[in-house]
């Protein structure tokens, strides 16, 4: 295909605004997929992605379109991950295309993820086509939403296309706009090969399948290629395009998007954003802006049943095959036994992996409180990355601690603004910006990531009745008064409950934790002190009073069945107990204690 007849684009949208449905309609209207093979949300491959309506890996589809001018075009759609956790992946796939459809639900308006994604598109110099979706609904308000796009995003929305991805109205106009308003790619077929590694996924039959965008040169089967960042070399054994199923082609030239396989063993060997060139005739400079993605949120994953440790190892290793941004190392905890300390790109990433282990591998998990990566500066001048609060070095050797900060953007209807400001303030936030657009406010806060990883999103949803949208990016590290808080039960430290907290908030957190544990730990034959401490200093304390162990003592009279039931319950509960010195703590207590509210 000549470059002038190729259009590469992505779709940016807030979740639920209709990105997947629109992609389905574009595929359907162009007969890319036979009617009988058409299923909903064609591009969201994994079940879990379908259910949650999120995309984690970039997916792509090549669409052949005969325009109204009679010309044949090739349209390549890259469906980028829509969530902030995968911001780097999004920015790379944006650089693989020249334009974007900006889909906004015309019954809702611009939301936080619309903004985050559209800024990425603008940064990648995209031509944008605003699409106002869901016009079949009575609440659709085209004028208001078009105005909002102009006010909030600052782009011309006069040519916005009214669409119903549900009924198919406006789809033809959208295809024509792609052809006429998006620029064709540029590139030189005779120059040395320069291709971008957009994403990769593991296929059990083919090994690693690499999604590529060719900038210059031509790629063919049998070619010897080099990854410029990793230095690794491979021979291409398959080359093709997605329609959306894999279809082999002879070669890929400038402006084209497709896949290669090259006997690559694991996704870890491929780096999103790397430049692929020929070994024999390499290009001079790699594509700019490569940076590896690093995990920012860590937590421990432990099997509820310690007999399942090996199955958990197996599950984690398999998942890591397909996800280079997920890291893990073995961890053992007195409270929870053997498990893994795992690193993730963000909270959603964590949830997705945890869900997949529980569902696809059928392992019940205990997840410890998520913690961010702290930079601990020692008095000797060295710096340690702290992934687990339990490993915090002795304070006498520590000079200071830095924590990651984020820039959070929140869009919220005016009436809930006060609650949102209060929530951000309570989480040590610093207000950066506050603007109004229509009946909505947009607030920007500088917040510590540590205050957001717990339950910020849930709290935000509850104080705004679900009407706020939220997005964030990590801005850097800053020093603050951060200390490790330990929990001691009957004078024994319980490592699984250690956490990093801000000094000013330590008492409050400590008190809450002790109160909670007092309710969660069953009484013993002796008195049990429950304490929170920083260094050697106790900052909160509760005492669980002693009790006779015979649980049936509670029943007066002779109700035998009730007595029996209680004894059975006690027996079942025993299985899931952990021993701390003389104290037995039910596993459930850890899980509940780590849930902050
Ligand atoms: P995504 O999260 O942006 O991929 O959104 P989806 O494509 O999954 O759509 C979210 C929901 O909106 C689904 O229930 C769709 O059926 C519905 N939806 C999408 N487009 C339209 C539309 O044009 N009209 C109506 N009424 N519903 C739509
Ligand atoms: Mg979707």
UniProtKB/TrEMBL annotation:
UniProt domain Tr-type G: residue ranges: 4-186
CC terms in the record's Gene Ontology section: plasma membrane
Enzyme Commission number, as recorded: 3.6.5.n1
Annotated catalysed reactions: GTP + H2O = GDP + phosphate + H(+)
PROSITE patterns (UniProt xref): G_TR_1 (PS00301), G_TR_2 (PS51722)
Record-level GO BP terms: positive regulation of translation
Sample GO molecular function, one term: translation elongation factor activity
SUPFAM superfamilies: EF-G C-terminal domain-like, P-loop containing nucleoside triphosphate hydrolases
Residue ranges of coiled coil: none
PANTHER family linked to this entry: TRANSLATION FACTOR GUF1 HOMOLOG, CHLOROPLASTIC, TRANSLATION FACTOR GUF1-RELATED
Record protein name field: Elongation factor 4
Species this protein is from: Roseovarius pacificus
């Amino acid at each position: 295909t000549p470059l002038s007849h190729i259009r590469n684009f992505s779709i940016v949208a807030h979740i639920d605004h209709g990105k997947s449905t629109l992609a389905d309609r574009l595929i359907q209207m162009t007969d890319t997929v036979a009617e009988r093979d058409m299923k909903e949300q064609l591009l969201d491959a994994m079940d879990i992605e379908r259910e949650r309506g999120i995309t984690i890996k970039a997916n792509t589809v090549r669409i052949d379109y005969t325009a109204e001018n009679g010309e044949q075009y090739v349209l390549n759609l890259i469906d980028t991950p829509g969530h902030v956790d995968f911001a780097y992946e999004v920015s790379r796939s944006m650089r693989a295309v020249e334009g974007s459809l900006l889909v906004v639900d015309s019954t809702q308006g611009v939301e936080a993820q619309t903004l985050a994604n559209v800024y990425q598109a603008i940064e990648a110099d995209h031509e944008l086509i605003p699409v106002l979706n869901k016009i079949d609904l009575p609440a659709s308000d085209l004028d208001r939403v078009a105005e909002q796009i102009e006010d909030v995003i600052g782009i011309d929305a006069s040519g916005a296309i009214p669409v119903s991805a549900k009924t198919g109205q406006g789809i033809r106009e959208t295809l024509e706009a792609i052809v006429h308003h998006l620029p064709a790619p540029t590139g030189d077929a005779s120059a040395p090969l320069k291709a971008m590694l957009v994403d990769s996924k593991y296929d059990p039959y083919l090994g690693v399948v690499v999604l590529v965008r060719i900038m210059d040169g031509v790629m063919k089967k049998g070619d010897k290629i080099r990854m410029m960042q990793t230095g690794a070399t491979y021979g291409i054994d398959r080359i093709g395009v997605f329609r959306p199923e894999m279809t082999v082609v002879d070669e890929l030239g400038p402006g084209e998007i497709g896949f290669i396989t090259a006997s690559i063993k694991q996704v870890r060997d491929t780096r999103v954003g790397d430049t692929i060139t020929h070994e024999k005739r390499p290009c001079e400079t790699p594509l700019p802006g490569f940076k590896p993605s690093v995990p920012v949120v860590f937590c421990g994953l432990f099997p509820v049943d310690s007999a399942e440790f090996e199955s958990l190892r197996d599950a984690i290793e398999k998942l890591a095959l397909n996800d280079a941004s997920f890291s893990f190392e073995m961890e053992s905890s007195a409270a929870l036994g053997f498990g893994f300390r795992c690193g993730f790109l963000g909270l959603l990433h964590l949830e997705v992996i945890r869900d997949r282990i529980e569902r696809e591998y059928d392992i019940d998990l205990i997840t410890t409180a998520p913690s961010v990566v702290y930079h601990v500066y020692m008095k000797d001048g060295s710096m340690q990355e702290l992934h687990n609060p339990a490993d915090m070095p002795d304070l006498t050797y520590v000079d200071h601690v830095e924590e990651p900060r984020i820039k959070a953007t929140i869009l919220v209807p005016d009436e809930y603004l006060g609650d949102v400001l209060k929530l951000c303030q309570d989480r040590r936030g610093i207000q950066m910006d506050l603007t109004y657009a229509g009946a909505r406010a947009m607030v920007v806060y500088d917040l510590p990531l540590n205050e957001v990883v717990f339950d910020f999103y849930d709290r935000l949803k509850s104080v705004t009745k679900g009407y706020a949208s939220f997005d964030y990016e990590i801005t850097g590290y800053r020093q603050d008064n951060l200390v490790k808080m330990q929990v001691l039960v009957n004078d024994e430290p319980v490592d699984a409950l250690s956490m990093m907290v801000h000094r000013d908030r330590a008492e409050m957190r400590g008190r809450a934790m002790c109160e909670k544990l007092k309710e969660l730990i069953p009484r013993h034959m002796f008195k049990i002190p429950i304490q929170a401490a920083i260094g050697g200093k106790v900052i909160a304390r509760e005492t669980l009073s002693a009790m006779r162990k015979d649980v049936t003592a509670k029943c007066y009279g002779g109700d035998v069945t009730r007595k029996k039931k209680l004894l059975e319950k006690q027996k079942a509960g025993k299985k899931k107990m952990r021993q701390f010195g003389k104290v037995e703590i039910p596993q459930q207590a850890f899980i509940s204690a780590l849930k902050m509210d």
